[in-house]
Specification:
The chain is α/β, with parallel strands linked by helices and 454 residues long. Helix content is 33%, strand content 17%. It folds into 2 domains: 194 residues, Rossmann fold, CATH 3.40.50; 212 residues, Flavodoxin domain (Rossmann fold). It has a 15-stranded mixed sheet that branches. The longest helix is centred in the last third of the chain and has 24 residues. It is globular. It binds flavin mononucleotide. The site of flavin mononucleotide has 20 residues, from helix 1, strand 3 and strand 5.
């Protein structure tokens, strides 16, 4: 991110891309665009093309909104940050929205979509009818782009009907009615937060900038493989000039019977020939997390999640209010699995959920370095299968070193933008409400006249 044009501009560019058939997502998208504009962003409010038949036509619709320009893949290229806004269809992204995401593949293949900051919004008829699943599936694409992913800020007083959700915004679809004021206010707040986080690094805060970036690598030191990856990851962070703390989580099960779901023989092999004889890093404290600008977690994968000791530690960080040690910080994870496909993806994705609850910005490796492809092409984080040997391959070591570097650089950038962002509450509408974007006529880089440039 540090080399991206946003560094040289005062205004971040935010694209709010939505699909809507009944008007809910259109209104939420307009609210997010308004919030981003109020944070000083240049905004494009765009709809995806929808040529598919509506299975419920004629359905109850809201009064028509002005037609917004149709999103093109180049809008993703243009943007520093994106709000991706799709209705929930069968617990997933709608087909027209997915078609838009897939249309970015040509730019992705050229490595041109990395390091955007992405957040998501959805609406669904049922409270628990797939809203979270839709937001999380939206982010799969963002991880593959190599984008950073931002959830919504969890609040102490979250109630049903506010749309707040640690993973983004998830509003109710109410037939024939627009989203409620709390939902719209939180959509504005999400757009606002995205724009602030995506924004230009603040050249002030000399006390912060005088020191190197700080990175903490926390791992469940279950065996040689995890420890080797953790050390290499720490070395990658140090490559950037960062100060690094290598820490381990306490493991109550060490020495006893496997109490945390270890799979056959895994715990024995994780200990490896190096055993516990090597100097062990200190046990992590909350201060190690509060101290850091970026945090990278590593652990063996067990039954599709990261191991219990690491999860227990991370879950203890997900408190709300001030003092959340991961809030607004860059974070990522790596893992060791018994076999390929025994959690290499699912354990990392599940761990991202915890990071969202902690308010962290998830910074996956994506395909931002050839090392990621060489190590198996896992965009969510490095995963080494123990069946390939106790010692991670040279490719895995290169990939995790890149992950350490990348997360450190993201932490460096975020520490310049995030500290002055206080907790957000719903942003009330402006009166008169900000107008929706007017049509674009001549291609993807033509502006939405009423929003862009405000
Ligand atoms: C094909 C289809 C699948 C849907 N699947 C779900 C679902 O899984 N869960 C749910 O609660 N609502 C579901 N809905 C309702 C939509 O979420 C609702 O129509 C949408 O949020 C309205 O957004 P819009 O007003 O922006 O078009 C579905 C609707 C359609 C057309």
């Amino acid at each position: 991110m540090s080399g991206r044009p946003a560094d040289r501009r005062t205004r971040p560019r935010i694209a709010v891309v939505y699909h809507s058939r009944r008007g809910t997502m259109c209104r939420l998208a307009a609210a997010a665009a308004e919030g981003a504009g109020r944070a000083g962003a240049t905004v494009r409010l765009l709809r995806v093309a929808d040529t598919m038949e509506d299975p419920f036509r004629p359905g109850p619709t809201l009064p028509a909104e002005p037609s917004h320009p149709v999103a093109a893949p180049e809008d993703v290229l243009w943007a520093d940050g994106l709000v991706l806004a799709t209705p929930t269809y069968f617990g997933n992204v709608s087909a027209p929205f997915k078609a838009f995401l897939d249309s970015t593949a040509r730019l992705w293949a050229k490595g041109m979509l990395t390091d955007r900051v992405v957040t998501g919004m959805t609406s669904a008829e049922c409270s628990y009818g797939g809203r979270e699943a839709t937001l999380l599936s939206l982010y799969q694409t963002a991880y593959h782009w190599g984008s950073w992913v931002l959830g919504a800020e969890p609040a102490d007083d979250d109630r049903p009907g506010t749309g707040r959700n640690p993973y983004g915004l998830s509003a109710a679809y109410r037939r024939g009615s627009p989203p409620g004021p709390a939902e719209l206010g939180n959509a504005r707040a999400l757009g606002h937060r995205l724009a602030r986080i995506t924004g230009r690094p603040t050249p002030v805060l000399p006390s912060v900038m005088a020191r190197p970036t700080r990175v903490t690598v926390v791992h469940h030191a279950a065996g040689t493989a995890v420890r080797t990856l953790a050390q290499e990851c720490a070395a990658g962070a140090r490559d950037t000039g960062a100060q690094v703390r290598l820490r381990r989580v306490p493991d109550p099960s060490a020495g006893g019977p496997p109490a945390d779901g270890a799979q056959n023989g895994q715990r024995h092999r994780e200990r490896g020939t190096a055993g516990w004889g090597a100097p062990r890093p200190p046990v992590v404290t909350t201060e190690d997390l509060a101290w850091a600008d970026a945090v990278i977690f590593g652990a063996p994968s067990r039954l599709g999640t990261l191991s219990a000791p690491l999860l227990a530690h991370a879950q203890s960080l997900a408190r709300t209010g001030a003092g959340r040690p991961l809030w607004g910080k860059a974070a990522s994870a790596f893992t060791v699995t018994p076999h390929p496909h025994a959690g290499s993806e699912s354990a990392l994705l599940a761990f991202h959920h915890v990071l969202f609850h902690c308010g962290a910005v998830v910074v996956p490796p994506g395909y931002t370095d050839p090392a990621s492809f060489a190590a198996g092409g896992n965009p969510y984080g490095v995963a080494h299968p123990l069946s390939a040997g106790e010692r991670p391959s040279p490719e895995a070591l290169l990939a995790v070193r890149h992950q350490g570097r990348r997360t450190a650089l993201a932490g460096d950038r975020l520490r310049r933008t995030v500290p002055d962002i206080g907790p957000t509450s719903p942003l009330p509408a402006r009166t008169p409400a900000a107008p929706a974007g007017a049509g674009r006529t001549s291609g993807p880089h033509t502006t939405t006249t009423s929003l862009e440039g405000r």
